[in-house]
Amino acid sequence: xxxxxxxxxxxxxxxxxxxxxxxxxVVDLARSHTxxxxxxxxxxxxxxxxxxxxxxxxxxxxxDAVVADVGLGHGVAAPVFDALVREDIADVTLxxxxxxxxxxxxxxxxxxAATAARRASRKAVAAGVRAIDRRRAERDRLVKRFGDPxxxxxxxxxxxTGDIYEDIPQAQAAARAGADVIAVIRSTGQSLLxxxxxxxxxxxxxxxxxxxxxxxxxxxxxxxTSRELGRYVRLTNYASGLCMPEMATLAGLxxxxxxxxxxxxxxxxxxxxxxxxxxxxxxxxxVHARAGIIINTGEDNYLTTADAVDEAHTVxxxxxxxxxxxxxxxxxDWQLGLGHAFEINPDVPESLRLELAHALLARExxxxxxxxxxxxxxxxxxxxxxGNLLDGFFNLVGTMTGQGILLVGMMTEAVxxxxxxxxxxxxxxxxxxxxxxxxxxxxxxxxxxxxxxxxAHRVLGEAVDLLERIGDQSLLTAIAEGTFGIMKRPxxxxxxxxxxxxxxxxxxxxxxxxxxxPL
Amino acid sequence: xxxxxxxxxxxxxxxxxxxxxxxxxxxxHDKRAEGAAVQLANKMGxxxxxxxxxxxxxxGFTFFVVYGRVNHLVDLAKVQVVERDxxxxxxxxxxxxxxxxxxxxxxxxGACIGTDAHTVGIDAILNVKGIxxxxxxxxxxxxxxxxxxxxVSVPELVEAARRERADAVLVSQVVTQRDAHLHNxxxxxxxxxxxxxxxxxxxxxxxxxxxxxxxxxxxxxxRIFGRGTTPGEVASYLVHALITSRKANxx
Lengths: 519, 251
Hints:
Number of helices of chain B: 7
Organism (chain B): Micromonospora tulbaghiae
Radius of gyration of chain A: 23 Å
InterPro entries (chain B): Cobalamin-bd, Cobalamin-bd_sf, KamE_N, KamE_N_sf
Radius of gyration of chain B: 25 Å
Number of strands of chain B: 10
Pfam family, one (chain B): OAM_dimer
Shape of chain A: globular
Order of helices and strands of chain B: EEHEEEHEHEHEHEHEH
Number of domains of chain B: 2
Number of strands of chain A: 11
Oligomer: heterodimer
Domain B12-binding (chain B): 105-249
GO molecular function, one term (chain A): cobalamin binding
Distance between the termini of chain B: 48 Å
Strand order of the largest sheet of chain B: 7-6-8-9-10
CATH topology of the largest domain in chain A: TIM Barrel
Structural class of chain B: alpha/beta
């Protein structure tokens, strides 16, 4: 019996062991496959930049050319760096341009040529990884200079106008008004693009395209604001969808601080092929680990499709799986922004006590993770007055249960994209609750054997039961059969499957090699 | 006719006409800003207008809450409402109607046709992720959704509709260069007319930000959905068009 909930340590250990057992076959699968996006990320690390006149990145053109000549299963590093020597070209981007024009043929080198190509590719990719290392050291320096927010939870606010040049002043204003973390929501459907758009963008659908240049512009603007406020303001974007590994790489190169990165979200909610997702996810998490980026997982999504009371245990299961995959990829506990949400129907009796039980369960299960606490969305009706009260209770539960990252709820959720005044009212709500009850988590100890403890025990028990059922059949089968959410997602279906290949015997990926080396 | 048809807003006394509004003006907070807020309230018909709250927000903006009396009258007899021609159902209700009345899954095939690669619209309607807080059609237990994705040719679409025994075909068109959305839609509806007899043809639905919702006849489709359509509206329409409005459709 430990902590505030009196959880049984043996049961907690059993839950972790079951998550490991369910996840390990998926890790093995990820280690034996590659994807076009993983290979494009390798080329980005090796220094390929820019896009063709149609906006298709040179990394896409180059990977497509290599795949056409030798297939994907060897990895593109060796064929590309072999061609570089044969063609006597110094610059990989130039090679991509020539390849796109059809003037370069690729082959899988062998013998001495293979050794030389591998060595050259490793050298180029190592330079990219060093660039990420420098950005991480720079973050450490800036956090030391400007300082971290004075209290937890960090206040996380969203901007999303579609126009990066509109987003910037909004983000700066939000930071001045108290936001510690700014998230720039992506344009609807970007997750299904099999390339990363290029350049600064001024048009999007309900969000702003994630591009390297947009990352750079926003980070620079927030550095300015951090200096002005004497507090390091963090920047968040999305490593999800078909370009997860590349997004992670660009985030590392441009010193983003957090990335949304869930192990199963793309499979369940975007119908992306499960193998594609798990392979991409492992690589992206290895990059995040190296870059010192905090990942945010997406458990809140389960509760928007399913009942937040009946399905509470699926959140716990997903958190345990996310934790296993994250640790395996090298992420430390402080980088695990495991998600959960305040989504119980407010008309359910004792809804607040149930929320306290669920939130505290996550806190106790993952004591060293900066949990991401997500506001009500499903039961926000357009009654802004009631919505503001609900957000107040959400903030209260967040502080009582010691959450790490608090996504600020908007009373106009489901009404409009937040107005300036909505954001101000929402932040006022947060400030009031944190000011009035910021230390309440110290005093809040649920009665032994009481409602909250019992509820938490029950959810953990149901999570263990579900993990046991998954263990009997493997995670991929469970996903195929619709265990999570109501969607059936078989491993041989879904978007992005054509961009997956099993490793050939001579598969080579210098990035994975470097990232898996102990530091 | 004793029913009262003329009413005013109600604060705490019949006929007091009291309303409250809140708004932001792009001016820093000072006396002049407060005067500006009262002026706006007066122009909106509030007289007297009581400025009860003014607060600076951000750089150079002020948020106001104003209470006041309006002298406008509302004539209930003259209220005109455009009714949706089908009832809006929840996901649960949609599922229940399909299950009870159709007694099999309702099959929906969706695609972006032509060279249009913008799957934003079709994905917002079909993906579980959905849009604006509403889940997409995949979320509906009783709907069988086949999303063919982008750049699907019309023959491929017809073939898929046949294979999936589609009850409805959803086509999304975002690109409107040289009226591509209109040409593509006409080509699609013509192909279905040619391939299948009237009674066997699926319901044809197109959607996109630039369609005129009244052009159904001209384009040969059953329904057009414009900007801002939600999955719930589409699902409710499907149930209406395929099930509830077809009273005697079972042999």
